[in-house]
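Box 3.1 A note on notation
Throughout this textbook, protein chains are presented in two layers. The first layer is the amino acid sequence; the second is a C-alpha cell string describing backbone geometry. Keep the layers aligned when reading.
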Amino acid sequence: MLTLDPVDCDKLNPQNSIRSHAGAGFFCNLLAQEGWHDQYSKKVLVAGCGAGHEATAIQAELDAEVDAVDIEDYVGDELKETSPVRFDVGSVCDLPFADESFDAIFYHHVIEHVDDPVASLDELSRVLKPEGWLFIGTPNRHRLLSSIGAHQQSEWDATVFNKVKDNLRDWKDRLTGKFRNELGAHAGFSRSELDGMLAKHFDSRHWVTQDYLRFKYRDGRVAPVLPLVTRPEICWFAAPAIYVMCRNS
C-alpha cells in the first residue's frame, strides 16, 4: 500500500480563492513517487477540467505541459490569460489529440457525468502513451453517505446543511429507483464496475481509495476515525468515493 507524503493543497492552487480539491494534490503526489520529476517528457491531460483551477494547480506543481478539456467552456477569461494551461472545448469521448499524446491523465469526478463511460475510457487510453498513468476518482455507488468534511470547492460546499441535503437526495433517489448516473443522480460506480471497465486497457490498476482518505482527512475532524474507516471490510461502503491509478501497458 502506498504511503503518501503531505501536499499543501492551498499552495497548489494560489489563483483560486476557494481551496482546490485534494484530488489534484493526491495525483501530483502519486506521480512524484513514480519518478515524475525525473522524466524527460511531462505532458498531462486534465479530462473534464471545469473552471480550470485544478489544471492550473497541477501544471504548477508538476512543472508540466498541460492540456485541459471540458464539454463546455467554464474557464474564466482571467484564468485563460494568466494560466499556462491550454484550455479547449471537447468531449472526452472524442478528444482533439493524436494517439499517445500524454504521459498522465487526470480524470477526476467526471466519468459519472459522461453519457458513455466505456467510450471515454477507450478514448483516454488512445491518447495515453505506453506506460502512461491514468488517475480516476468517482463517487462510490455503495456509499452510505456523501462526504461531509470535504474541502470547500464551491459556495455550495460552504455549509454542512448543504451536504446533508445531498445525502438526503441520494437516499431519496435510491428508494425511488433513480440512483443512476444517466438520471443525473451522480451515483458513481462500485469498485467492481469500474475495475471491469478499466480491465480492457489497463493491466495495472492500483486502488488507492484508502490512501486518498488518509491524505485528504489527515488533519480534519474525521482523522480520529480514519483507522476504522479505511479498514478494507468497512471502506467499501464508508468511502464517499473510490480512486484508482492505472498504468497503460
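The mean pLDDT is 84. Residues 9-247 form a domain with the Rossmann fold fold (CATH 3.40.50.150).
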